[in-house]
Design goal:
Structural class: mainly alpha
Strand content: under 5%
CATH superfamily: Gun4-like
Order of helices and strands: HHHHHHEEHH
CATH class: Mainly Alpha
Shape: globular
Distance between the termini: 23 Å
Number of strands: 2
Largest sheet: 2 strands, antiparallel
Radius of gyration: 15 Å
Number of helices: 8
Helix content: 40-55%
Strand order of the largest sheet: 1-2
């Protein structure tokens, strides 16, 4: 069986995913979450501490989404990753069309632990270990942009056939 470092770190824009891989490999979920945010900025041509807009997410390079997702899924043993989140979102009635469906989004939040007792958690309440609910991570871009941005990500994942 191939080792975990065998995931090809492909990028359409030349993003270096080795730091993300290394953080995930040692289970440093919090720093990996932040690194995910940073590499996503790079993948759309932005600098550190920028903000990714809907249009940029809808055109996010599929190669880069696959690399990021495969790393998260592999190193978390299928607990975390964008594709895991998309699967959960679809299972609660969401659609991968980029539209915001409040009921599905709330159910998704409940399922992944981003919403507790009908209230959305703060970033300092995120669980950065594998005891977290399935799909809990990554979360950084969601908190930097606000609730619901993930539905745009799920739409792009659908386009990328992920």
């Amino acid at each position: 069986m191939a080792g975990k470092k065998d995931i090809k770190l492909s990028s359409r824009r030349g993003v270096d995913y080795s730091k993300l891989r290394d953080l995930l490999a040692v289970g440093n979920w919090k720093d990996a979450d932040y690194e995910t945010y940073l590499v996503m900025l790079q993948a759309v041509g932005l600098k550190e501490h920028g903000s990714i807009h809907e249009r940029q997410l809808l055109n996010f390079p599929c190669t880069d989404f696959r690399t990021i997702d495969r790393l998260w899924v592999k190193y978390s043993d299928g607990i975390f990753g964008f594709s895991v989140q998309k699967e959960i979102y679809l299972s609660v009635g969401g659609q991968p069309d980029g539209k915001y469906y409040e009921e599905a989004w709330n159910k998704f939040g409940d399922r992944v632990g981003w919403r507790v007792e009908n209230s959305w958690i703060n970033y300092d309440q995120v669980t950065f270990d594998t005891s977290a609910p399935r799909g809990h991570l990554p979360i950084g871009e969601c908190f930097s942009r606000g609730v619901g941005i993930e539905v745009i990500i799920f739409s792009r994942l659908e386009t990328c056939k992920m």
